[in-house]
Amino acid sequence: MNFKRKGIMLVIASPSGAGKTSITRNLLKSDNNLTMSISLTTRKMRKGEIDGKDYHFKTIDEFNEMREKDELLEWAKVHDNYYATPKAQVDEMIKNGKDVVFDIDYQGTQQLYEQRRADMVSVFILPPSISELAARLKGRALDSEDVIARRLKNAKIEIDHWAEYDFVLINDKLEEAIDEVKVILKATRLARVRQLELSSFVKDLQSQIDRL
Amino acid sequence: MNFKRKGIMLVIASPSGAGKTSITRNLLKSDNNLTMSISLTTRKMRKGEIDGKDYHFKTIDEFNEMREKDELLEWAKVHDNYYATPKAQVDEMIKNGKDVVFDIDYQGTQQLYEQRRADMVSVFILPPSISELAARLKGRALDSEDVIARRLKNAKIEIDHWAEYDFVLINDKLEEAIDEVKVILKATRLARVRQLELSSFVKDLQSQIDRL
Description:
The structure is a homodimer of 212-residue chains. Chain A has helices at residues 20-30, 60-68, 87-95, 106-116, 130-139, 145-159, 174-190, 198-210; strands at 9-13, 34-36, 40-41, 56-57, 72-78, 81-86, 99-102, 120-126, 167-170. Chain A contains eight helices and nine strands.
């Protein structure tokens, strides 16, 4: 029996290379009720990017105005550019029972916790080992040796925050990790606190007993 | 990757006839890591019952002694007989990563919450309607009309406590309800708080980074 349900904010975090992107892509493909949260950014649009799909591209003034009006759920500055999650779009989806997945780091997660903890479930993905993490970063051939070295050092800071997440998975076999995140999402959807019409359903059951 | 894990205390509660027993039996059959909690009782052993399998049969003096020594997780008096859950057997299983399922009512659940909330996940099963509940009680032909009428009245009291459970499922189709409880158990097993060796695994990952 399906009730009207509150949407879930699903945070999937991991050090770079641990498999977050593969897991998220797979989830989005296999689950119609799940949407990716689209961040806004003040950085320049790159070739091939689409405004409103890859990011909401904004000027610094627009970003500052939204921040001052408390219209952001979280924001961060990375290499002189700002990135943020607009509040309105997320709240609208959650209200309509849509689940939203977030690709944010531990600092973004902490900001989200402050504002929307009851709506969130958070998953942290760890690599089985650092040599495996290094091999994956080298294997995807996206970055120079220097950048990979920096990503590995950053991994230490990110990993330091593992205990702030509801679930911590080791991505040893990608298929298993994907299945585990699916199970987490499925169970989270079943939680009592998300079933908005249970209370009236139960009242109705009880009046059926009274009429016996 | 599998870590040493703390066991889960899984409470499945429902009004009589809503399907708790079918769901629990199916879970126990399909899941090797799950064991039924064996209650102790002061009532007389019935024909065919086995001490230590169906119940731990105790005298009233033995029960009183255990209660005074705080050796019980919960207890209740039903029709002049006492029923209780011995603490030691449950704690031993949880410590060894075994999951234990409890067939107790809302009062038993409340007593368990007081002592072991962090180890518990609780599921309440509702019938799709009271006419369906009545039909199931009549269909199993275990009880007289009078007893069925009393069970339906008791259902109201039990249902009143739905909001004290982590998950509330409507048992509309038994197979679906079974799958849902399996998903809940699977996700609960993945929770960070139950993975006892994560902390040392993470420390090891970080020292691998330091050695780079």
